[in-house]
Design a protein that fits this description.
The protein is an alpha+beta fold. It has 2 domains: about 130 residues, Bifunctional nuclease domain; about 30 residues, no CATH class. It has an 8-stranded mixed sheet. It is globular.
């Protein structure tokens, strides 16, 4: 797994959606995740540490986790299926480790509020992150292998067009 942090939010005018930009600790790889505007607002409030007069959904979730004596240990973005990311919340309750399925945007919003790390799986790192700065030989080799196995129908899939 690769530890990530929220680098920031952007607005994608073409799709009228927000994009959360995650970056690894060495600032060599980024992961853009498109989210809805309400989800982006929840992430931004967590980033800025804004306290609202009444608890919003993620604040309520934090309160529930703490009131039940649980701890959120980490958030892991695990996979992508049909252009949809999946995540797991890793909780500890009475010394028992539990995982709960979550949208990455919700996981990120909770991680920011509870100051816990965000990770991405190796599958996500190798298939959807973007290199920043100089690219090393290993990344060139991995990309070359990816291109060698690429078929025209695969390209359509990656671009969002079904064959």
């Amino acid at each position: 797994m690769m530890k990530m942090k929220v680098q920031g939010l952007m607005f994608d005018q073409k799709n009228s959606m927000a994009v959360v930009i995650l970056i690894d600790e060495e600032e060599k790889r980024t992961l853009p995740i498109w989210v809805g505007l309400f989800e982006a607002q929840a992430i931004l409030l967590g980033l800025e540490g804004v306290k609202t007069p009444r608890p919003l959904t993620h604040d309520l979730t934090v309160s529930l986790i703490r009131t039940l004596g649980a701890e959120l240990e980490k958030v892991v973005i695990t996979k992508i299926v049909d252009n949809t990311f999946y995540a797991l919340l890793h909780l500890k309750v009475n010394q028992e480790e539990l995982t709960v399925d979550a949208r990455p945007s919700d996981g990120i919003a909770l991680a920011l509020r509870m100051d816990v790390p965000i990770y991405i799986s190796e599958e996500i790192r190798s298939s959807t992150t973007v290199a920043t700065g100089e690219i090393d030989d290993k990344e060139i080799e991995e990309f070359s292998q990816f291109l060698d196995g690429l078929k025209p129908d695969d390209l359509k899939k990656y671009l969002g067009y079904e064959p």
